[in-house]
Specification:
The protein contains two helices and 14 strands; from the N terminus they run E-E-E-E-E-E-E-E-H-E-E-H-E-E-E-E. It has 285 residues and is mainly beta. The N terminus is likely disordered.
Length: 285
């Protein structure tokens, strides 16, 4: 999953260790029609897992609501909300509330986005726009935070396309995926270089989940993989730079994620799936 732009106070993430990685893939832009993403609504309860910066956090807690629906023929819609409360001690508490709505074409050629981030009820970011892929590149039109048109490299992927490519790589036995990703976050002008490390496949009868995924018959027969995605400022070699932040999770082959770990450098937040509702979607004709 992509948790949009970080709603916590990002400080930078330690470089991801690459020991044991044996193969890499830089995919083409052709999407695999066999990768079917499940429409679902998941809730993740967040809590502080580690604080390692110079200014230790006293506590962190929150919740993510991730409501995803659609199909390859109709496109994919996402309603996302992350509310986080950070206690840095001495009575200093910050409440962050990020809400985002996106729609992405099933062919990976079009993307619409609208997001707003509040900290202590004050709007600090508001972004709205759309992007379309043509033969020469990706054209972006922003209406917030200001009117602006610009072009991106044709190799840039949108978030749902990125997830499909990760699953495709995992099924193929790949352990590394590098891809530039545009999700309309922050000011709406940033492209992230991403490095995804895919771990050993977890068989359906191995390591049973202990969260809201445990009682879902639709997931019982599916493979899943431990995945870690690092996001880098674009413009350098991802193997030599420190990532802005990273996200770890177990990824089912239908796109559902569990056991989140959000690493913001100075601290780490874990996310336990407390609720999961699967939705019915009409198959493509």
């Amino acid at each position: 999953m992509r948790c949009a732009n970080p709603t916590l106070f990002v400080a930078g993430v330690a470089t991801l260790a690459m020991a044991g990685v044996t193969s890499a893939v830089r995919p083409s832009l052709a999407l695999n029609p066999e990768v079917e993403l499940a429409s679902h609504r998941a809730i993740y309860d967040l809590k502080l897992a580690d604080s390692r910066g110079r200014r230790q956090l006293s506590a962190a807690q929150g919740r993510i609501v991730y409501d995803f629906s659609g199909s390859a023929c109709e496109g994919y819609a996402l309603q996302f909300r992350q509310v986080s409360e950070i206690n840095s001690g001495e009575g200093k508490v910050a409440l962050s509330d990020l809400q985002a709505t996106t729609w992405e074409g099933g062919d990976g050629k079009s993307f619409r986005f609208n997001s707003q981030n509040r900290v202590n009820e004050r709007v600090v970011d508001a972004v709205e726009g759309n992007a379309g892929r043509g033969g020469a590149g990706v054209a972006v039109t922003l209406s917030k935070p200001r009117q602006k048109n610009f072009d991106l490299d044709v190799k840039v992927a949108f978030p749902t396309e990125h997830m499909r490519r990760i699953i495709e790589a995992a099924v193929a036995g790949k352990t590394l995926l590098e891809l530039p990703v545009y999700d309309g976050s922050e000011t709406g002008e940033k492209v992230f270089s991403t490095l995804t490390v895919i771990g050993r496949e977890i068989a359906p009868d191995e390591k049973k989940p202990d969260d809201a995924a445990a009682d879902k018959a639709a997931l019982a027969g599916l493979k899943r993989w431990p995945v870690n995605i690092s996001y880098f400022e674009q413009g350098g070699n991802s193997g030599e730079l420190t990532p802005v932040y990273s996200i770890g999770f177990e990824l089912y082959e239908n796109g559902i994620s569990r056991a989140l770990v959000l690493d913001y450098g100075d601290f780490v937040v874990s996310g336990v799936m407390s609720q999961l509702d699967l939705k019915d979607v009409a198959p493509c004709k």
